[in-house]
Amino acid sequence: MTDQPVRNRPGRKRSAASRDAILAATLELIAEVGYAGLTIEGIAARSGAGKQTVYRWWPSKADVLLEALATKADVIVPVPDRGSLVADLREFLVDTFALGAKQPVGDTLRALMAQAQVDPAFGDRFREDFLLRRREVLGRLIDRAGDRGELPAGVSRETLIDVVFGTLWYRLLATRAPLGPELADELVALIARA
């Protein structure tokens, strides 16, 4: 699924092939049965891995889903370098919004955010392994724009990232308004005008 290194966890070393099979099975199952119907047993059966293997590598179904979604986002939403903030940001946003608008990704993001609110330990992992990871990707794009002198004066890097992801999460969680290229264009214009 990805060239990302497999994270070191206590216990037996992960097999990359088993990991990929488990993550693929998780994404297939979430599309078929939704978050409420997703189980470790189902993931294990679909992937051909043992239930104990899944539990050894991930503490919960939310954690398996989190890694599967983060891996998918890394593959589908790369860090473009088109030579300008406007072009880079638009491509990043179009790809990000397209992924977030797909089903079951939108529902999965909502489920993971909800789980993060009721399970503080998972919430910490969600912030570290997904939210901060996506912020770092956008941060690299913004840092390049800063090096080229393209960032709006008086607006911090963190605020720019908050505006982008705040818009995404507000639409996903509160309004369910569409995510699409038109929204990407509006955000790019807003940031470029600033």
Q: What would you say about this model in short?
A:
By secondary structure, the chain is mainly α. The chain has 9 helices and no strands.
Blueprint (SSEs and pairs):
Layout (H helix, E strand, L loop, with lengths): L15 H22 L2 H8 L3 H7 L3 H16 L8 H17 L3 H14 L1 H28 L9 H19 L5 H13 L1
Helix pairs in contact: 1-2, 1-4, 1-6, 2-3, 4-6, 4-7, 5-7, 5-9, 6-7, 7-8
Question: Overview of this structure, please?
Answer:
The protein is an all-alpha fold and 194 residues long. It has two domains: 16-60, Arc Repressor Mutant, subunit A (Orthogonal Bundle); 77-193, Tetracycline Repressor, domain 2. The protein contains nine helices and no strands. The chain has helices at residues 16-37, 40-47, 51-57, 61-76, 85-101, 105-118, 120-147, 157-175, 181-193. Residues 1-6 have low confidence and may be disordered.
What is CATH's topology name of the largest domain? Tetracycline Repressor, domain 2
Number of domains: 2
Shape category: elongated
Mean pLDDT comes to: 90
Q: List low-confidence stretches.
A: 1-6
Give the strand tally.
0
Portion of residues within helices: over 70%
The H-level CATH homologous superfamily of the largest domain, spelled out, is Tetracycline Repressor, domain 2
Span between termini: 38 Å
> Approximately how much beta-strand content do the residues carry?
under 5%
For the record, the CATH architecture of the largest domain stands as Orthogonal Bundle
Q: What is the N-to-C order of secondary-structure elements (H for helix, E for strand)? A: HHHHHHHHH
Biggest beta sheet attributes = none
* CATH class category name of the largest domain: Mainly Alpha
Secondary structure category: mainly alpha
- The radius of gyration over CA amounts to 18 Å
Number of helices: 9
